[in-house]
Specification:
single chain; 331 residues; alpha/beta; Arc Repressor Mutant, subunit A; Nucleotidyltransferase, domain 5; three-stranded mixed β-sheet; 11 helices; 8 strands
Length: 331
């Protein structure tokens, strides 16, 4: 009794299915008679087994359950599994030890092995008089951890970088030229002198890509290393009409209708994008410069756009194959 109320423990009388309850009632009639005898021989067990349609061994199992219980029908109901696929079978105290040891011993920069962590689990369980879980149980708990979070805890942010998205969350862009990303990359070819065929170096491409349309809206190719002298002209090329530039190149048949002043340019933290000239030029024309938050984060939209602008990105990414040579007349 607790607080004047009786505690009623449900043993299956109200929850057992009708089929199981009917079988238990029939078995109780036979097993009850056997349990009244001081000794149940093989002949009596065989007769009960024949009557119930079960084996002799099952008769003795039911008889043991009847005598160990209260001698009621519910003693013969089939047992219910407390575990099962996808459900824990360990005591709550053992589960708590597993979590504590994994957090304290496995998820740290000492990078202990699973064997070392398991030895600590065994030590704590035995010290608390608890059943020791199998090592496979510990391995399943570790495999269920978030891979990126576990790698960060054991190896730091650098170790988890390959498990995370390179581009992070995509920017919230609603209209054309709302954000334009600008960056540089070397072209996969070698420029050589027209007369002596001496290498002059690899040109750099500075490209501006509109995030909303994924279109290249500005482009500058130069043999000089990336600087404000390439970032500024690329931004100017983004704003200007491309037709005069294409006509000077003899490309009258090529259409490049993308142009306009961007609301925001998104760049990395390189020196050329931090220059006073570029900042003042953007302020002069009402363009907002936005910088990548982390030096190691990826300028994902720009790289996706560059790869989509050329066949397989062949002319945009350095490769170990021999680079083609292009003759250039020195000015």
């Amino acid at each position: 009794m607790d607080g004047g109320q009786a505690q009623i423990i449900e043993q299956g009388v109200l929850t057992a299915p009708d089929e199981e309850w009917d079988v238990a009632v029939r078995q109780a009639e036979v097993i009850g008679r056997l349990a009244a005898e001081p000794r149940v021989g093989l002949a009596a067990a065989d007769a009960a087994a024949s009557e119930l349609g079960i084996s002799q061994r099952q008769v003795y199992v039911l008889l043991g359950r009847w005598r160990a219980g209260e001698g009621v029908v519910s003693d013969l109901l089939p047992g219910r599994s407390s575990g099962g696929r996808g459900q824990g079978r360990l005591p709550a105290a053992v589960e708590a030890i597993l979590r504590e040891v994994i957090d304290a011993r496995y998820l740290n920069r000492q990078r202990r092995s699973v064997a070392s962590v398991y030895r600590e689990v065994v030590r704590r369980c035995r010290g608390g008089g608890l059943p020791v879980p199998a090592r496979k149980t510990l391995e399943r708990r570790i495999e269920a951890l978030d891979p990126a979070a576990a790698a960060t805890a054991r190896k730091g942010a650098d170790g988890a970088r390959r498990l995370r998205s390179a581009g992070g969350d995509p920017p919230s862009i609603e209209g054309l030229l709302q954000q334009v990303q600008i960056d540089h990359t070397p072209v996969d070819l070698e420029v050589v002198d027209e007369r002596h065929r001496l290498p002059m170096g690899r040109p750099y491409v500075t490209a501006a890509i509109d995030v909303a349309s994924r279109c290249v809206v500005g482009l500058v190719v130069t043999l000089e290393a990336p600087s404000a002298l390439s970032a500024g002209p690329c931004l100017a090329h983004t704003v200007c009409d491309k037709r005069p530039w294409l006509e000077r190149l003899g490309l009258q048949a090529v259409a490049w209708p993308m142009s306009g002043k961007p609301h925001e340019i998104y760049v990395d933290n390189a020196t050329e994008f931090r220059s006073e000239a570029l900042r003042r030029g953007c302020a002069q024309h009402g363009i907002t410069p936005a910088y990548r938050p982390s030096p190691r984060s990826s300028n994902g939209w720009w790289r996706l756009g560059v790869r989509a602008s050329t066949p397989a990105g062949a002319a945009w990414s350095p490769t170990p194959t021999p680079r083609p040579a292009v003759a250039c007349r020195r000015s």
